[in-house]
Amino acid sequence: MNEAIIVDNLKKTYSNGVEAVKGISFSVHYGEIFGFLGPNGAGKSTTIKTVIGLLKPTSGKIILDGYDVQKEPYKARLSKGYASQETAVDDRLTAYENVYLQGKFFHMKEEDIKKNAEELLKMFNLWERRNDLVETFSGGMMKRLDIAAALIHRPRILFLDEPTLGLDIQTRAAIWEYIRKFKENGMTIFLTTHYLEEADALCDRVAIIDQGKIMALDKPGVLKSEIGGDLITLTFSENTNGDIKDFLEAVKEKEGVKSVSEMKNGIYSIVVEKNGDKMIPELFALASKFNVGISSVRLKRPTLDDVYMKYTGRTIREAESSRDENAKNRLITRRMKR
Ligand SMILES: Nc1ncnc2c1ncn2[C@@H]1O[C@H](COP(=O)(O)OP(=O)(O)OP(=O)(O)O)[C@@H](O)[C@H]1O
Ligand SMILES: [Mg+2]
Question: Cα of 217 to ligand 2 centre, how many Å?
Fold first, then answer.
């Protein structure tokens, strides 16, 4: 299959010596939504900026829409749209002017800019506000405008760096819908996020990136199923007549059950390979056979955070807060040096 993006052993070390990307390889298929999931400082923005040719790689090769980004930068430039993490709209211009200017950057014909700008501003619900200065816009409106501007020249591949960072749930959901629509129209989308739900809900495939390295790469469902199945927790009624031990032995024998154990006093956990939801009625049927009363059941499916945990030994939130701690400590040291 022809690939939209091919990245081969990419390394990026900044001039201050920070090795932000430490030799990563991956490819993105045409027509898919591909996500880079990782905590603050993992190297997501560095990767995106290097892949689109904004930063020069320290080493490695990048092919974008068939063009070598380092050897044929101008051709590669036309294939891509990019909305950066820090929204790049000019707030002293109107919404329309921002989109128009972007079209001019790509040397588009006047009539094409007009046609595309109208279509995009309408699609992003900004048409009514097209003649207002962007400084009067909310954060969510600016983000939408930034993505609209990135699309003016109808790129085949769209790069979105943290498209929903800091947005409320409704705006985030709206942006997810736009992204899905672009995909339906055949566009390839590469996005970065540190929201687990976003990667899970939106991406066909996800690369988990941590400290400049890809730790895992696959469909979210596959990554989660590798974790080892669904977890069912059970508690029993106090006045149960039957024998809980016999019941648990029978559960152990069931097909698809990987383990049965007592977690805490009176709370039992059952790990099943998959389809934990289908197992629940079967557990009830078995319980009534053994005359055992079940008082509560919970089903927990593995999340991408569990996947992240498996590959890095911490949750994404822990990774982010430890980075915050590091940043704080660095700040304190710097102050003390002064
Ligand atoms: N211009 C730069 N000069 C030096 N170091 C940089 C520069 N930009 C980023 N870094 C460092 O490179 C590493 C990766 O940063 P990057 O911005 O790629 O991470 P990220 O995954 O996008 O994080 P976030 O989720 O916070 O956006 C960090 O340690 C960061 O401090
Ligand atoms: Mg970033």
Answer: 19
